[in-house]
Specification:
The complex is a heterodimer. In chain A, 66% of the residues lie in helices and 0% in strands. Chain A is mostly helical. The chains are: A mainly alpha, B alpha+beta.
Chain lengths: 228, 222
């Protein structure tokens, strides 16, 4: 049960500590790779969503370390810019990441990316911190306006857990599709465009859109079957 | 149909969390009622996220990220208590009004309805701070005497329609009035009109007998 003993987790923590010691912000990057994680949030959204899922379902500390490694330094920069004080900035990082750890199950990949969810948590904490720091007496808190961290009572209209897992899996498999097929599937199934609109937008014949859609769906179906 | 929205600057300030708490509350309540503005909020939030996270952070630090990670993952998981997500209802004279989600928590702290002037009813909402929030109900034909504002008055139409000589307003409309605006709100529809209003200074009545109220308008303000 003690994941602190998990070699991968220990490795992540060591990596972070070594880099902090070296005063280089290369958190979460394995030692043998010295480049900082310069990817933009949207470029690692699928990867981070998968980590979020493992934190939510298994309390996976290694996955959380990955999320932490990517977001904690970025949150610190954001908080420093906003609050202008290192101690308060670090408090904001700590509160935000604690919430990510505690409330990962409230993250819904269908509603948005992990980066937007995490940013929203930080924005809310900042809003409430600022109110306290300014000694404002208003009885208005971030939960009133942005209730993203409120546990909701079960809604019968919500999709069943099984269905969610399948959607999650499809999301992961989807990323393995060839780029051209991915673009078409994304436009049709995620953005809700018609095949004709996609054809116009990508400047390719309608027939090509149709065949790419068919190929992609067949491929996803095959992948799902071999996955089970 | 909603015609009056917060402007883009207000929406942007609201979504980045730099707007004052009370103004945020009423803008948020408008967004609960307005698909168009809530879409804009999503876009602003998206772009704020990119702005905050796109650049890779500076390579200098003395901070204890390692121990922070360890501390957080050592925390017990606190499952939290599920909150009822039911919408709250405001009752007045046997009628029920559904409130925008952002105002739900305040439904419990609404004071008694009191008769203001003419066919106007008012119930205070305790939101703390230096501003005063009220639900105001105008019966059909009910009218607030012509007035202007020493400070700022923000109004959200929760249910119904009214006109004020400047424009016609419908459910969901959001307005900000200040000393540049002189108006006389009148409820025009049979159902009357319920609005949520936040003011930071007393109203200033500008015509007829109502001017006599001015020295006492702080009584209406509180």
């Amino acid at each position: 049960m003690f994941i602190e003993n998990d070699p991968y987790f220990v490795h992540c923590v060591k990596t972070i500590n070594v880099h902090v010691r070296n005063k280089r912000m290369l958190i979460g990057i394995p030692l043998e790779n010295n480049k900082p994680d310069v990817r933009k949030p949207k470029d690692c959204a699928a990867e981070m969503a998968a980590h979020m899922d493992r934190v939510a379902k298994e309390r996976c500390k290694a996955s959380f370390a990955k999320i932490f490694g990517y977001f904690a330094p970025r949150l610190r920069s954001y908080a420093l810019k906003q609050m202008g004080n290192e101690a308060i900035a670090m408090e904001l990082v700590q509160d935000t990441m604690s919430n990510v750890w505690q409330k990962a199950h409230l993250f819904n990949a269908e509603k948005g990316s992990p980066s937007t969810w995490i940013f929203t948590i930080a924005r809310n904490i900042r809003f409430d911190m600022l109110r306290k720091l300014r000694n404002r007496k208003e009885d208005v808190c971030s939960d009133d306006m942005w209730p993203i961290l409120c546990e909701q009572t079960a809604d019968p209209k919500e999709k069943s857990l099984d269905e969610k897992i399948t959607l999650q899996q499809v999301g992961e498999l989807f990323n393995e599709l060839p780029l051209k097929q991915k673009a078409v599937i994304e436009a049709i199934y995620i953005e809700g465009k018609s095949q004709q609109e996609v054809a116009d937008e990508l400047n390719i014949p309608l027939g090509t859109v149709k065949s790419r859609t068919r190929l992609a769906l067949q491929r996803l179906k095959d992948m799902l079957e071999t996955h089970d | 149909m909603i015609k009056f929205h917060p402007n883009n600057q207000q929406l942007s300030e609201f979504s980045s969390g730099v707007m004052s708490p009370t103004e945020s509350l009423i803008v948020s309540a408008h967004c609960d009622m307005c698909v168009k503005c809530s879409r804009k909020i999503s876009l602003y939030t998206e772009s704020n996220t990119n702005e905050a996270f796109n650049d890779s952070p500076d390579a200098e630090s003395e901070h204890a990220f390692g121990s922070m990670l360890f501390d957080i993952t050592s925390q017990q998981i606190d499952k939290g208590i599920a909150r009822e997500s039911s919408t709250k209802v405001l009752e007045l004279d046997g009628r029920q009004f559904t409130l925008p989600r952002s105002l739900n928590r305040f439904a419990a702290s609404i004071g008694n309805w009191s008769h203001l002037v003419g066919k106007i009813w008012q119930a205070p909402v305790n939101i703390g701070g230096d501003t005063v929030a009220n639900f105001i109900f105008m019966e059909k034909g009910g009218s607030v005497p012509e007035h202007t504002h020493r400070g700022t008055e923000m109004t959200l139409v929760v249910n119904g329609e009214f006109s004020d000589g400047l424009a016609d307003y419908d459910s969901g409309d959001f307005m900000v009035m200040d000393e540049k605006h002189v108006h006389t709100p009148v409820a025009t529809s049979d159902e009357g009109c319920l609005v949520f209003s936040i003011v930071d200074k007393p109203l200033h009545f500008t015509s007829g007998w109502a001017r006599l109220i001015n020295p006492f308008s702080h009584l209406f303000f509180k």
